[in-house]
Design goal:
The protein has six helices and five strands, in the order H-E-E-E-H-H-H-H-E-E-H. By secondary structure, the protein is of the alpha+beta class. It has a three-stranded antiparallel sheet. A two-stranded antiparallel sheet has the order 2-3. The radius of gyration is 22 Å and the shape is elongated. The model is unreliable at 1-7 (pLDDT under 50).
Amino acid sequence: MTAARQSVIMSQPLTLRIRPGESVRFPNHCVACGQPATERLMLHNRRGQLTRRLDAPLCADCARQLARRSGREEQLRRTGALVAAVVGVLALVAVVALVGGAWWLRGLLGALAASAAAAFVWALFRRRAEAAQLPETRAVRAAAQIVDFTWRDMTLVFADEAMATAVRELNAALLPAAVPQLEAGEPTI
């Protein structure tokens, strides 16, 4: 686990021609420390409504490290859930009491306001909780990342250059230079 505790210097970006639903091959070594992998680390990146997900190998020690939380992070998560629930209920009651009209319309508007208020408060607390993560947990999360994607490409970076090289070699057929370009007029499958 010593590699995950060192400062994180990212490898050169690795772009692979891979579409949603297709998979990237990884060596059976932890992306954070290089030990034999037994667990999975879910990598994801979101842009608007689109999300790309990928499972990277992780060892048991690094998986346990991901599960650990600082006292401040745990406090913010629990408090955030409680405050979001209270704000949601208050928003529901306020809208139902203040808005005129049919009972079903007041209930619908109250539910929408309650959902929006609770989601906003939860997002604020979640960001603060993420900022309070343990440094070791941040290092494991930063070991492999999806930094960019399109409908046909995914760009990854790794904290360990050896892991980046191994992934590049295992997925050589998916590198942009290795994928043949379609000639104009050729049908696509």
